[in-house]
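Moderator note: this is an archived Q&A kept for reference. The question asked for a predicted structure of one protein chain; the sequence and the answer are reproduced below.
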Amino acid sequence: MSKRIGFIGAGQMASALASGFAAADESIAPEVISFFDPAESSRQRFSNRVAGAQALESAESVIAESDIIFLAVKPQIMPVVLPPIAEAIDENVLVVSIAAGVSLATISTMLGSTRIIRVMPNTPCLVGTSAAVYSPAEGATQSDCDELGQLLNSTGIAYQLAESYLDAVTGLSGSGPAYVYNIIEALSDGGVAMGLPRDIATRLAAQTVKGAAEMVLETGLHPGTLKDQVTSPGGTTIAGLRAMQDRGVSGAMMAAVEAATKRSRELG
């Protein structure tokens, strides 16, 4: 892919995506990536992650320099940011929105364009292990979807689904890394409580989560089946699992996904 890629908004997700694209695809040199953000801290972080990317003076300048534009601003300020740039966008530009909860119809109304794709990525794209879902508007072609899918798959896995699924995707994989960080921290705390050094406990916890995830992906087995394979009658693992069930861990994780999904719907 030799497309020029621009970012309007240079926050954590934007810089993670840009860095992931540049690292995963040799045809995407940092020099073909441009960005605009009014916040100096965001511009600096983006430049640090993607050395050689162009920091431009306006959103309109980024649009003029790009074939694909990522709208990477907070959902609440989309109504402020989009209408002023509408005239700069024509059908030669593919617009990709990563704003949670803001529908394709809303974006299309604000921009006057239908060549739009909504994406819900997540921050592990920074290390090539993203999980993303994208949904096209009626003006986006299959070629547009294929190109974006190629980009996203270069940093992990990506699926094309109907827009109606995106709020649930936001609640699961979009917000999911934060849930997993919380779990890793809790596992590490447990190790420290049992006498392990903090640095060793954290690395053991993180590697255990990574390894368990790889087992699910590589074997294709149901997580419950894999759980049973390491759970001996009367053993240590079942004792730990019972403690988790007594404290409602499974219900708490489901509730987290539901709460984040609900919030995504509210943002729309």
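Archived answer notes: Residues 176-267 form a domain with the ProC C-terminal domain-like fold fold (CATH 1.10.3730.10).
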